[in-house]
Amino acid sequence: MPSVDLDMLRDLSCWQTPPCVSIYLPLNTTGPTSYDATRVALKTMIGNARHQLQTDTTLRRAAIDELLAPAHALLEARPSPAGFRAYGLFSAPGCSIEAPLDAVVPALSVVADRFVAAPLVAAIPTDDRFYLLTLSHNRVRFMRGTHHRLSIVAVPDLPAGCANALWYEDHERRLNVHGGAHYGSDQVIGTRHGSPSGHDLHKDQLLRYFRAVDRALWTVLRAEVAPLFVAGVDHELAVYRQANHYTHLAGSLDIGNPERLSLDELHAKVWPIAARTLDRARRALIDRAASSPTTITALPAILTACCQGRVAALFVQPNRLQWGRADAADVHSDRRPGDVELVTASICAALQRGAAIHVAGADELPGDPPVAALLRY
What is the reported pTM? Predict the structure, then answer.
C-alpha cells in the first residue's frame, strides 16, 4: 500500500475525472468485536457509495462494480488496524488508491466530481525525527525516535559506561610527600599534596567520560539537525552539557537512573517533550498567521487567492469539510448536489503554486476557522 505524502495529496486533490469515490474508514480497535464492527462499517460505506453512483451518475452496473472493486477487495481481505487508525479508499476512472492512515478521520463515503482529500493532511508525516541519549555511570544508549517509537542507533567507539571510557586511568587518591625543612637530627617536616576531593574527582571523571561520549556521537551527528534530548540524573546531565558540542541539543530530562527503562518506557517519557520542540516551527507560523493582516479565513476567497498564487501557507482543520461552489459565497458543511469540497480544491491550488500546507488544531486561529491562508501579498 502506498504511504501518504504530499505527492499523493496533490494527485488526489487535483484529480478531475469523475465520478470520484472517496471512502474514509476509521478502524475500530477496541473490544472483542472490533473486526466485526469495522467490517460492518465498511459494508455500509460501500452501500452508500453504490447508491450515490446509481442516483447521481449514468454509469451502468458493471462500471459501478469496477469503481467499488477496491473497497470490496479490502472487505474480503479482513481490514485490520495493523498499526494504523484508518483506511482511505479512492476510486475513479483511471485511478485507484488504498492507503492506510495514521490519523483520526471522519467516517465518510462520498461520490463527487473530485476526491475529498482534505482529511489526508492529518496523515502526512512531518519531520518528527529526534535523538535520545540516556546516560548513567554504567550504561550509555543512543536512540533515534519518532512519534511512534525509539530504536537503538549503533555508534562506533561509543563507551559502554564510565569504566569503559576511562579504563586507562588510575583513580586511586594519592598522598605525595617531598622533603621539607629539617628540625633536629631526625625530624623532617613534609609538605603534603592531596588529590582533589571526592566530589571534584567524580565530576572530573564524568566530564572526561562524557567528552568521550560526545566524540563518538559526533561521527553520527555532525551533519544532523534533528533535536537531541539527554536523559538521566540531573547533576550528571549538567556535566554532559559542558561536554556537548552538538548545536541542536534541545533539552535534558531528569528521569533518574535510566538503565532499567525499556525503549517503550523511555519513549513515553520523552515524546511529549519532543513533540512540543518539533512543533515550534509550525506554532511560530500559526502565531504569525493569527496576528497578520494578510491572513484570510473566508471561503471561497481563499480558493481564489490560492489559484492566484498569493498564498504562502494554508492552514487546514482536516476533518472540517466545507462544501459549495467555487464562484459563490454560500459555504456549508453538508454536501448538496453540484457542490465542490472547497478545502480540497484550495489544497490543490495551493500545492500547484508552491504554498505550504499545515494542520491547524481546534482554536489555534482566531475565530477557529476550518481553513485559513497566510498571504504573500
Answer: 0.78
